[in-house]
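Let us practice reading a record.
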Amino acid sequence: MAMAETRESLQVRQEEGSAKVEDNRVKAQSEFTVADVISALETYVATSQEDTTVKIALTSHTPKVQGFVITLEVDNDFLLSKVTDIHPYLLSFLTKRLNNGFITLNVQVYTEPENGEEKKRLFTAKDKFDHFVEINPAVSELKALFGLEIE
């Protein structure tokens, strides 16, 4: 597929015994916003033959735009590898769609912003129940009302 795109972007014409190279790469530096990138990604998702996991990965988080650098965030390493596999095709699509040949596309795993406190992990059923009781004390009353046990 990448070879076909390379052939498509550089077409060699034979004219009068010499070869002339025609370059079809996007050379513009048009400005774009986050909304433009989101629109382009939605168009890519709608028109591509990618599997559902990739489509969800591309639309689940808002892309970050800093100048001509677009950063896409995915939820885990599996999705990171899937999106990395389509990186050249996605970059080519965004370059044409946004009319900017100087785009840099980064893909990284999403990390939650920290407020200076360590996030508590809930592993056991008791931890999860206590967390829900903190959010809504009525959960404790429901547990007692229905005679439920926490494993």
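A brief commentary: The mean pLDDT is 82.
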